[in-house]
């Protein structure tokens, strides 16, 4: 039975194929929008007149309209051909016909074009305009530049080509024409200006000096536009590039922006050179003048001495007609109606009987200087004050005087008033009054305790000695003897002796006399109170008791008077037994360490 069915199907297949119809041209052929395109329903088995007798044709269209009705509504006719106009859209179109009422019913059917590629670029965005192969939305060109530049976009493709639904049409279609619009005065190498069309999506242009604005380019489907009904041009969207040409003067720099009364020293003013500028016009505060060239981008301005104000400059560009003046942003030169405060160039702190030079920087606007000093100082060999036009004087120690002092200079001007500068000094060699010290014990000579000593000078001395020479006596050890401070460890337990600390320092006036302090070596108490019995110790052991201690730990060490350790140990609790077996009779020092503090007591052993 199955073999019979297949045989019948094979026999009638040619007749079924003969009855199929098709629309020509089919949808694989891209079509222009706005053009009259004729489509015909063509029977596969013969001529339309032979096969379509008595047939009715109902035509339907998507994204287009029928030329005869100027409508997209369905259109019924006895004609097997129809003219359509595709819309200017990038979506695909479709034409379909429903064939009914044919005398030969086998010719009834519904052929269709399938998706028709409409060669529309409506709403398509070209790529960003490139300037010398760099895509950008804006581009700056010097005001006077006419150097050629290259403008381009990517070649504009028609959407949907190639189409996977139309494999027989595999090539990409591209726009055949581009419409460019250039700023005023610009031209191409072949002298096209304004708005023009060209097959090129890359062009070389010559800018006009001083002309900027917008470059625009869009695709034009010239092929479809020429045959359109009615005649229209089919464009893409624009791609734009903004050309900026307006020049700007960079910020003015000034050698100084703050002036005092009477200051007529030059102020150097400048701006970076601007391309295309042939000269510069400077605007200065009233009464100011220019020394030397006045038309360059750098000038030397001479203040009036009585005012400040705004400074500006205009760069003059002559490459265009009319010429162009580009103004800078003004800057302000501030003005102070008083004289500036003097500044010392050389002003030593230590003053001796040999004269030292004191000098200041010349004060602009000052006509004279008044020099004054404390009573222990001479100015140019005489007691102050001294009226002078000089910015330098000789300062020396007044015989028989020393200690803290001062030097003062006043700049004077009949027009601008006066200003004063004072400096404190020291007259003569300073004296070391005593040594300050710090360490872990209450007294700097607690046996074997370490302390650091520093000199304390005559009241008010603020100088910095350049070198130090320390001397020590009767210490266990010491640090560097040439530093600004000295660290020593006190000697042992010879209570009849003293520890000595001496120092001399070098100032700009030379070495001071040596200062020496003697410190009695003494017993010290920094911690809990130790008690031991019997005292003197008359047996081979003694009882050690620490006041205030109940169940706390502490350590003990016994030294002889030469600092040698004879015994040590740790204890806990209020009382402990300590053996002295093997220790000969003599005087010893017992040191207790408790809670970070130490206490030392003398112990006598008699056996």
From TrEMBL:
<keyword id="KW-0732">Signal</keyword>
<feature type="signal peptide">
    <location>
        <begin position="1"/>
        <end position="18"/>
    </location>
</feature>
<dbReference type="InterPro" id="IPR026444">
    <property type="entry name" value="Secre_tail"/>
</dbReference>
<feature type="domain" description="PKD-like">
    <location>
        <begin position="249"/>
        <end position="324"/>
    </location>
</feature>
<feature type="domain" description="Secretion system C-terminal sorting">
    <location>
        <begin position="534"/>
        <end position="605"/>
    </location>
</feature>
<dbReference type="InterPro" id="IPR045829">
    <property type="entry name" value="PKD_6"/>
</dbReference>
<dbReference type="Pfam" id="PF19408">
    <property type="entry name" value="PKD_6"/>
</dbReference>
<protein>
    <submittedName>
        <fullName>Putative secreted protein (Por secretion system target)</fullName>
    </submittedName>
</protein>
<dbReference type="Pfam" id="PF18962">
    <property type="entry name" value="Por_Secre_tail"/>
</dbReference>
<feature type="domain" description="PKD-like">
    <location>
        <begin position="353"/>
        <end position="422"/>
    </location>
</feature>
